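REQUEST ID: PR-0412
SUBMITTED BY: lab tech R.K.
PRIORITY: routine
TASK: structure prediction, single protein chain
INPUT:
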Amino acid sequence: MKKALLHLHSADPTLGAIIRQVGPYRITYHDPDFTTLARSIASQQLSGKAASTIFGRVLEQAAARNGRLSPTRVLALGVAGLRPLGLSQQKATYLLNLAAHRIPYARLADLPDDEVITTLTAVKGVGVWTAHMFLIFALGRPDILPTGDLGIRNAIHRAYQLPAPPSPAEIESIAQPWRPYASVASWYLWRSLDGPAQL
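STATUS: complete
OUTPUT:
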């Protein structure tokens, strides 16, 4: 990690200032499995606290063991069992789609980033943003740049004093010096807003 931080400090003074302000890199990783992806779907467009409450209900209702969800038990709940837990109709359907889809979780770590994205986004309800979060927070990939993330856009807008939040293409351009550590840079940008993305 020291190598990544030294690179980011020297490559981008603005990001270097954010790193000094935020302090040590303390990312939290999750297991690259069904539970983590299900949590990500449940968390979409919600605050961390609301997402945690709702997903906690899902874990309880599905009788999760050691905090791990079983796709079979989620399928058994169906939309009728998931909706009262606080999930929207759409998210309940997405969760059931994920449970029914046979994702080769054990093989994902061996796939390149673009193949992981293709595999995950084949499931309705799993978009590129969710795949990016999975790559960063579950697979620990070091060079993921979530250009569609609102927090990243807002953090760059503020830190680089831009007249408007940047487009994905502008983010790519600004982030070029961060390579090959865009995930680390992204974590610091989230922390500069005092709220890393939820997975």
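NOTES: The CA atoms of residues 43 and 51 lie 5 Å apart.
REVIEWED BY: pending
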